[in-house]
């Protein structure tokens, strides 16, 4: 059962038994030393008396308990067991903030366990930096710190290829600008519109859009998404270059070159590569020696090769 904030305040303000120290709700008085198992030097924390797992405390009660413990933490000496105990309890109490921040940044491909670790680092930084005397709510202070840590993780650790920091930040700027312009225009903005909105050149916008493609890489073994006709993995649906295209291109280029040859040269080519006759057979049909046919073929082929590579 979740511990309520009324119960927490009651334990913090209720009179203690005879001979025991009392603690008010503000935590102004020092707690009496109590013999906890294994930690005789830890101070008494009545706020935590019946809490077995701080992670199970209701969010509304966790906020009030966080306020009390942060005030208590400010009075403790860093490095002591009491300080570590209160600090660890604050971390566990506010892990729900980390989960909220993860949902807020959107659906990512990173494992949630990894994001919890990253967000917890931001939570710890917020606890260590928070000053209760400023009067701000801890949630207001901690959430931007946690979000910043998670976004820094995405920026520095989740890119599929190495992209300069400048382009990583430009990608985020372009994404925000596209959302703004989409709402304003009712359609996806063009490159010139993005450039004008951000006061950038079109080349810079194109560079940023191209860099965004390096953020994530899809797997060739990934199954088809909903709506695709072929359910097989992407690798089975990707086309590949047909080597016969090169032959076709050469034939197209050769056609006018062959047409420009003298009639006898075209006949020699037809006999050699069309009917696949030997040089001796060609010589016998044309009344030429095999050596003469060889020299003619060499000259013809050299001329065609020069025409193919002229451009």
Explain the overall architecture.
- The chain has 311 residues and is an all-alpha fold.
- The protein has three domains: 5-157, Four Helix Bundle (Hemerythrin (Met), subunit A); 162-216, Orthogonal Bundle (Arc Repressor Mutant, subunit A); 249-308, Arc Repressor Mutant, subunit A (Orthogonal Bundle).
- 60% of the residues lie in helices and 0% in strands.
- It is built from 14 helices and no strands.
- It has helices at residues 5-13, 59-75, 81-93, 95-104, 112-129, 138-157, 165-185, 191-198, 202-212, 234-237, 244-259, 263-274, 279-286, 290-308.
- Helix 7 (165-185) packs across helix 8 and helix 8 packs across helix 9.
- It is elongated.
- Residues 1-43 have low confidence and may be disordered.
Biggest sheet features? none
Structure classification: mainly alpha
Helix content: 55-70%
Show unreliable segments. 1-43
CATH topology of the largest domain: Four Helix Bundle (Hemerythrin (Met), subunit A)
Residue-averaged pLDDT: 77
Number of strands: 0
Q: Count the helices. How many?
A: 14
Q: What would the principal axes of the Cα set say about the shape?
A: elongated
Strand content: under 5%
Give the N-terminus to C-terminus distance in angstroms: 83 Å
The CATH architecture of the largest domain can be given as: Up-down Bundle
- Total domain units: 3
H/E topology pattern:
HHHHHHHHHHHHHH
Radius of gyration: 39 Å
What's the CATH class of the largest domain, please? Mainly Alpha
């Amino acid at each position: 059962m979740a511990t309520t904030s009324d119960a927490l305040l009651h334990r913090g303000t209720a009179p203690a038994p005879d001979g025991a120290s009392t603690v008010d709700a503000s935590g102004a008085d020092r707690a009496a030393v109590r013999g906890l198992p294994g930690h005789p030097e830890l101070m008494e924390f009545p706020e935590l008396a019946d809490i077995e797992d701080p992670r199970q405390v209701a969010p509304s009660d966790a906020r009030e308990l966080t306020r009390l413990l942060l005030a208590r933490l400010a009075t403790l000496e860093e490095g002591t067991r009491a300080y570590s105990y209160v600090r660890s309890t604050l971390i566990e109490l506010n892990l729900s903030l980390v989960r909220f921040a993860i949902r807020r940044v959107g659906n990512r491909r990173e494992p949630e366990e990894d994001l919890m670790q990253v967000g917890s680092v931001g939570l710890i930084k917020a606890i260590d930096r928070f000053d209760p005397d400023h009067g701000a709510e801890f949630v207001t202070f901690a959430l931007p710190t946690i979000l910043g840590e998670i976004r820094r993780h995405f920026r520095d650790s989740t890119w599929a290829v190495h992209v300069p920091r400048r382009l990583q930040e430009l990608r985020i700027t372009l994404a925000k600008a596209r959302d703004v312009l989409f709402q304003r225009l009712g359609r996806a903005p063009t490159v010139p519109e993005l450039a004008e909105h951000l006061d950038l050149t079109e080349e810079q916008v194109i560079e940023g859009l191209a860099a965004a493609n390096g953020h994530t890489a899809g797997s060739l073994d990934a199954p088809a998404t909903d709506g695709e006709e072929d359910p097989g993995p992407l690798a089975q649906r990707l086309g590949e270059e047909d080597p016969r295209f090169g032959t076709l291109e050469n034939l197209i280029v050769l056609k006018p070159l062959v047409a420009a040859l003298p009639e006898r040269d075209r006949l020699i080519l037809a006999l050699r590569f069309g009917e696949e006759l030997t040089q001796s057979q060609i010589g016998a049909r044309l009344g030429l020696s095999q050596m003469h046919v060889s020299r003619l073929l060499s000259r013809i082929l050299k001329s065609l090769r020069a025409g193919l590579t002229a451009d």
